[in-house]
Amino acid sequence: MKIGIDARFFGPIGKGLGRYTQKLIENLEKVDNTNQYFVFLKKDNFDEYQPKNKNFQKVLADFRWYTFSEQMKFPKLIKKYELDLMHFPHFNVPVMYNRKFIVTIHDLILVHFPTTKSSTLAPIFYWLKFLAYKFVINSAINRAQKIIAVSHFTKNDILKTYPKIKQEKIIVTYESAEDFCLLTPHNKYAEILARYGIIKPYIVYVGNAYPHKNLEKLIFSFKEIRKAEKDLNLILVGKEDYFYRRLKDFTLKNNIEGVIFTDYVPDHELDTIFRNSSAFIWPTLYEGFGLPPLEAMSKGVPVISSNQECMKEILADSAYYFDGKNSADMAGSVIKVLNDIEIREKLVKKGYERVAYYSWKKMAQKTLELYQDGTK
Length: 376
Known about the structure:
Layout: E1 2-6, H1 15-31, E2 36-41, E3 56-60, H2 68-79, E4 85-88, E5 101-105, H3 109-112, H4 123-143, E6 146-149, H5 152-161, E7 170-172, H6 189-195, E8 202-206, H7 215-228, E9 233-237, H8 242-253, E10 259-263, H9 267-275, E11 279-282, H10 292-298, E12 303-306, H11 309-315, E13 319-322, H12 327-339, H13 341-355, H14 360-374
Parallel strand pairs: 1-2, 1-4, 2-3, 4-5, 5-6, 6-7, 8-9, 8-11, 9-10, 11-12, 12-13
């Protein structure tokens, strides 16, 4: 069987989606020596992927995401390879692609958060783009042979939003954090922390600064937290962009001290930031899976998370929960975890157990089964 994978998001270039795509391909290389794979990459990440299985072949597909060339030119390139099945790890399936495919839906954030605050575009252009996104998502979900959802929360969300979709069409395959257990020598800790201007003690957040991440509420709550924990700092790890710059402005305007923005941090240095933190904070209002809390748990860091439905599914009893819309509850939860040794020890123990529940290899094996079903 000839299988194609749209890997234009492969690696750090695609953030969480890039991690998923990378780990899927790397683990398919380990579990499948029968089928032939064509991995479509952009110029930016073409050299980053080096096949370790002779059945995997790279193909240059230098088409930007969400563009006319993606919709019109990418399908023509794919069709040249006469694939039995194509896997799109994101909703941006070209509408003109009319052969068999599987799509992974990570979440429906774009459908549920139609707000100009989540875009740098002028309102009229944002709403036009939003309608285009909505059309493409609807097309992908309806035309796919199978849909992969990264959580039961996402599966149920799809079923509620698109009631004509049959339940058996959607299969849940969890992501994992098992490969985040990198170890940095202790004598390098101080050097790495100093490079990012980080001063202990601190709590840490890792991720983007999109509005649904609820970081303004976190920073507002941190002002109250610091009244009880005067030396505590809040470290926000994420590549600087329009949303992080706007968050910096919000912090300055509200005169909130102790907030440190690191910009992008590579994994081997992120390990140090995790391990030296007092806790990991995750204030999200909506999530399809939520990988960073599991990353933190794999480093032995207690996790404090919003009680958003998906996070309770993924983290179970391994996190301390708060109401993400309630600043006082968020602040009180952080203060409680920082000062209760028994709770902290329990969270660390439960965190290690929870991380062990997930596996990239299992995810790849289940996806391979779907490939085989998807051609029937």
